[in-house]
Amino acid sequence: MKQARPSVTAAWVAAARTFGELLPAELHIAEDPYGAAFANVHVPRIAKSRLGRRLALAPGLGTWIMYMQVRTRVLDDIVRAFIAKQHAGQLVLLGAGYDCRALRLRALADVPVFEVDHPATQARKQRVLAKLGAASPAHYVTWDFEARPLAELPGALALAGLDRTRPVLTIWEGVTMYLTQGAIDASLRAIHDWSAPQSQLAMTYFERTRIESPSPMMRLVRGAVRGIGEPFIWGWNRDEVEPYLAARGFAVRDNRSLDDAAYDFLPSRVAALVQGRNSCYALAEVV
Fold first, then answer.
1. Cα–Cα distance measured from residue 245 to residue 249, given in angstroms and rounded to the nearest whole number
2. Which of 85, 126, 209, 282 is the most buried (most CB within 10 A)?
């Protein structure tokens, strides 16, 4: 991400979540009424129009919207399951972007939520929510990842109110593909540091083939994100994730392709369209 500028890709993701509202009822599996407001000023109006409904079902864009529905639902369900099990649990959103789970998930009504992100993105998020009249209960932890070492982040979270003696779920969504291996390692060390026993980490990642051998469509996407200063850098082979996290203090409990997860929520004929993205998620517990 370019310094002093809010994340552009985070705005795209937020808008895609809202466009899910335009899908037929059986395909609308995740709710985010706030997302469109973080994109282009015209997007909220388009999202409510006939054009928006056509775009949500169009090839290409429709596949992207369905993919975001699946990714959002998978992580929402992980949040709900964690809070149901850990009644004194907490949530950290690392690289939160325009995530509005603190506002939209009822399960988090009495749960401390800590959002960590770059000053420019976080400031814009607060401005947009203020214009919407939406008061998020999240604790904002402003963090310049380029200027401050991640080893200091656990202490900053504690100052913001995180209880490091209680279990915490850390959501690391849509971030790892933009980081170097050094930044990945530093992030995992920090997450482990602020995580008490019974804590969990849920992260999304690209398979290495998506980085090293992209499809023609993926080449276009890579060019677009590189042009805005948010290039794809990192990926794992799926069988590398478990030993990689184990070496850093995490035991993997689930490690799946989001393509496969689509069949958990969608009719088979539709789930088959969410394919070829080489995108996965992993759920791990702190050892």
1. 6
2. 282
Single-letter residue type at 250: F
Bridging pattern class, strands 279-286 and 200-206: antiparallel
DSSP-derived pairing of the beta strands 113-117 and 200-206? unpaired
End-to-end CA distance of the chain: 32
- Alpha carbons 182 and 243: distance in angstroms, whole number: 17
User: Is 176 domain-assigned?
Assistant: yes
The reported pLDDT for the residue numbered 7 is 83
The residue length of the chain stands at 287
Domain range enclosing 98:
86-286
Quick one: pLDDT at residue 26? 83
Strand partners, 141: 116
With 0.70 as the threshold, say if the pTM is over it. Answer: yes
Sheet holding 279-286, edge to edge: 139-142, 113-117, 90-94, 168-172, 200-206, 279-286, 250-257
Asked if residue 10 belongs to a domain, the reply is no
pLDDT in tens, 19-32: 888 788 888 899 89
Q: How many domains does the chain have?
A: 1
Domain CATH number, residue 180: 3.40.50.150
* Predicted local distance difference test score (pLDDT) of residue 72: 96
> Encoding tokens for residue 78?
């992980």
Which burial class, exposed, middle or buried, applies to 219 when counting CB atoms under 10 A from its CB (0-12, 13-18, 19+)?
exposed
C-alpha Rg value of the chain to the nearest Å:
18
Higher-pLDDT residue of 52 and 248 is 248
Is residue 41, in this structure, part of any structural domain at all?
no
C-alpha closest to that of 47 among 59, 62, 31, 36: 36
For residue 157, CA distances in Å to 16, 67, 103, 151, 245 come to 30, 31, 20, 11, 22
d(CA 105, CA 84): 13
Residue 209 within any structural domain of the chain = yes
